[in-house]
Design goal:
Blueprint lengths: L1 H24 L6 H12 L6 H8 L8 H14 L3 E3 L7 E3 L6 E5 L5 E4 L2 H5 L4 H6 L8 E4 L2 H9 L1
Parallel strand pairs: 3-5
Antiparallel strand pairs: 1-2, 3-4
Length: 156
């Protein structure tokens, strides 16, 4: 377990270093708010919304506004240090995991889980999509019911 924690810490440090480099390369000033928002994003496994990040940070940084968090997350997506997780019928959710991966989302509670599946990574893009779009990223989104939301109906 200790080794896994050390690797996670090293990965976060690498992400923060790359984040700082990307901000500098794109001419984005590295403010304390931006750094806190980014750290909150990469430390979360929940694919947080702007509201969740705001609520978490307002105690550490009382002058931060929800609008600042929204605009900052949008900027992070524009410069390529974060992505917006697509979904239906809920607020935007964000993540800092830029590794090629996919998502499974519970339609009841909204939980989003990352997963890695090489077959999905290798799946070809249909010709008609390739003709209409310059494909920048392929991500599979699976929707269903998570184990927690499914259990009550399976026990009854």
């Amino acid at each position: 377990m200790f080794f896994r924690e050390v690797l996670a810490t090293m990965n976060r440090e690498r992400q923060i270093a790359l984040f700082k480099e990307q901000c500098q390369a794109k001419g984005i000033k590295l403010t304390p708010q931006r750094l806190l928002i980014y750290e909150e994003l990469i430390n979360s496994v929940e694919h947080p919304s702007a509201e969740r990040i705001y609520n978490s940070l307002k105690q550490k940084f009382p002058t931060i506004s929800l609008d600042t968090v929204y605009r900052t997350l949008d900027t992070f997506c524009e410069i390529g240090v974060a992505t917006m997780v697509e979904g239906t019928g809920s607020s935007k959710r964000f993540e800092g995991n830029l590794d090629n991966h996919h998502h499974a989302r519970c339609v009841k509670c909204g939980k989003i889980q990352d997963f890695y599946h090489e077959a999905y990574d290798q799946m070809p893009v249909p010709r008609e999509i390739q003709e209409d779009f310059q494909v920048l990223r392929k991500t599979v989104h699976i929707e269903g019911l998570c184990r927690t939301c499914r259990l009550p109906s399976e026990q009854g």
